[in-house]
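quick one, 245 residues, struct below
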Amino acid sequence: MHLETAAATDVGLVRKRNEDCVRVRSDGELGVTILAVADGMGGAPAGDVASARAAEVFQQRALDLLVQEPGDVQRALRTAMLEANAEVLAQARRHAGWQGMGTTLVAACLRGTNAWVINVGDSRAYHCRGGEAIAITQDHSYVEEQVRAGRMTAEEAVRSPHRHVLTQALGGDGPIRPDLFGPLPLEAGEALLLCSDGLHGVLRDAEIAAQATGMPSEAVTRLIAAANDRGGPDNITVALTRLRP
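---
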């Protein structure tokens, strides 16, 4: 079996600049592929710098740690996430105009037929199988935490003026508590999809599933087009990898 992967980012139809970032790296000797999607915090200075540096540092440190301890994927991902957070904070301290910058980060490590996923913020990972897009991650956002606590309905969350308020982000105040999932087995034909809220904020999970079929490059193009058809109110970023026989 082998992986077919595609990724793209689009500014959308409303924002003037793209503060999202997507990175895909593979290491043939380690037999791993690492995907990362980061969404620079809207309205904060240098959001594009925060997302790019977080994704780059995360990927490099994860690979470095896997070289040292190939069998401990969870440790590699958790440590890499903490170091990505430290990098965003350090960049903000070095540049007077960058204080307050931050970013979400969702990332995955794929090895063989298994995937591991880690996230901070509201960028998401989905397991696409059997015609469904099943959310792996849980958003670190005020409204999603209210929904999980039973204090708000999903319909109320969509309409809430606080729906973009994050409870965790890289570069934010206080320590981060990333969620880590895996190993998650993938079967032939199934896919792992990472995206920013420019996609999942305008498309329902069933709509994401309907577009996330076939060749990854075609699926990514369709998903971005579908989000723009809904007005493209935010930057849109998608990375999709499918396990082929």
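The chain has a mean pLDDT of 93.
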